[in-house]
Design goal:
Number of domains: 1
Distance between the termini: 19 Å
CATH class: Mainly Alpha
Length: 180
């Protein structure tokens, strides 16, 4: 297999990064507002595959790091990545890598994709929460794990699982078109 990316791969990667950016700007107002950012990460991985999907996530993060306002609420910069919620954005790479590895090892079956994305989300939550606690402690003082989880993870579990299911359904519908 040729490890080099073809022009069509580069186009898909760019479209994937753009989709993640657009979805990060869409905020659903609830008690704890959330974006469609994780939906886009799940969708891009499932629709484009592990390699192209993970590269889309990396490009998205690099665009934000250099100052293009692709993160939630049109924010950008290294400061956002190094801020309290930056660990969750960086955690998207773990979702991609876990997905890529699982599909490579077990094939692109629905159960493999779902399990890989759920495991990746758990790792993203763990990394993001540890990051949050570290930054919060530096800025405001110590915080317990229960408080951090109640602020940063528990309100997002059900919405993220719903976004994951929707992303898998839509990606399976669009996959035949992408293979042409």
């Amino acid at each position: 297999m040729n490890p080099k990316l073809k022009p069509i791969d580069l186009a898909y990667i760019a479209i994937g990064a753009a989709l993640i950016a657009v979805c990060s700007w869409i905020s659903i107002p609830t008690t704890v507002p959330f974006t469609l950012q994780t939906f886009a990460v799940f969708f891009v991985l499932s629709a484009l595959g592990g390699k192209r999907g993970t590269l889309s996530v990396v490009i998205y993060m690099l665009l934000g790091a250099v100052g293009i306002p692709v993160f939630a609420q049109f924010t950008s910069g290294i400061g956002t990545l190094l801020g309290m919620t930056g660990g969750y954005i960086i955690g998207f790479i773990f979702i991609g890598l876990i997905y890529w590895l699982a599909v490579k090892l077990f094939g692109k079956k629905l159960w493999t994709e779902a399990a890989a994305l759920v495991l990746g989300l758990i790792v993203c939550y763990a990394f993001g929460t540890a990051w949050f606690m570290h930054v919060y402690m530096q800025q405001s003082g110590a915080i317990g794990i229960a408080a951090a989880l109640s602020w940063c993870v528990f309100p997002f579990i059900l919405p993220d699982l719903a976004k994951l299911a929707l992303a898998l359904i839509l990606a399976r519908r669009i996959a035949p078109v992408l293979r042409r």
